[in-house]
Amino acid sequence: MKSLLAGLCGLILLGGCGAVSQAAIADRQVHLQQAHVAPSATSTPKPTRTPLPTPTRTPRPTQTPTPTAVPLLPVLAADAELLDLRLAGVRGSRSGQLLRSEAVADLKALIDAARHDGFELEIRSAYRSYAEQANTFEGWVQYELSSAAQAGKPLSRKQAIANAATYSAKPGTSEHQTGLTVDLLPQGAPEIGFRIPDPLKDWLNANAYKYGWVQSYPIKYRDGELITYELMGYTSEPWHWRWQGRASAKALYDQGYLDTDSLLVPPELPRICDGDHDPCTILSAAPTELVPLPTRTPIAVAE
């Protein structure tokens, strides 16, 4: 062992090393390591997947409200049965006022509820035959003519008819001819120039649907402009209510059809009592005998 160490030392001395510093030894070790370590192959980095964006659901376009969203109108018999409201015990009715039997109980319930809350209602109009509607419409035409003449601004008959048609239906087109519609006013209201006090109007708007009644022509605005006539063909009539069943009326109410800025309007009623002008029959409250309404000759509105 001593001879081996001596030999190594001699080799180092022959190389001119003399006293070898620790730094030199460390430096040589680094070079030796670099000489013997094979260069590692450069690995190709795997491509990084671009994360897919989280899909954003495109909101469905807001649809314009339409009456088709409400339940269907109640299925009614083709042969309408009309009850005399006075005989049926409906408060606020007049003798001879008629309504389809399906709607009578709900009308009575509505009027009784209004009375309980302090409002005495009067049924100004219910079912109208074709002839009655013709007379009603002609009365409004004459009203337009006379009013214009008194104001010194006479109208042609054609213009008077056009004016009357904005608030009164021509014969054959009135909801009153269906036997499902009533005009409700406070007791003692004038015969012309219907007005409903705001408290009663608010009460009807908030409660009528509970009994199956819907306001046919609610007031509507768009950007502050009155558009009731544009939407429904008539000016607003807060006294004009038609029966279409409690489920359908509630659905329409819940969708906000009475909101003044909503375009939702009640669906059109079928013209049940228009075929041959008077297909309906009268059913009194007491007797069971059906009394056919007389068939009347169609009355044209002269232009």
From TrEMBL:
Chain intervals with Pro residues compositional bias: 48-64
Gene Ontology MF terms in the entry: peptidase activity
Keywords for this protein: Signal
Protein name (database record): D-alanyl-D-alanine carboxypeptidase-like core domain-containing protein
Cited PANTHER family: D-ALANYL-D-ALANINE CARBOXYPEPTIDASE, PEPTIDOGLYCAN L-ALANYL-D-GLUTAMATE ENDOPEPTIDASE CWLK
CDD domains: LD-carboxypeptidase
PROSITE patterns attached to this UniProt entry: PROKAR_LIPOPROTEIN
Region ranges (Disordered): 36-69
Listed GO biological process terms: proteolysis
Source organism: Herpetosiphon geysericola
Pfam families (alphabetical): VanY
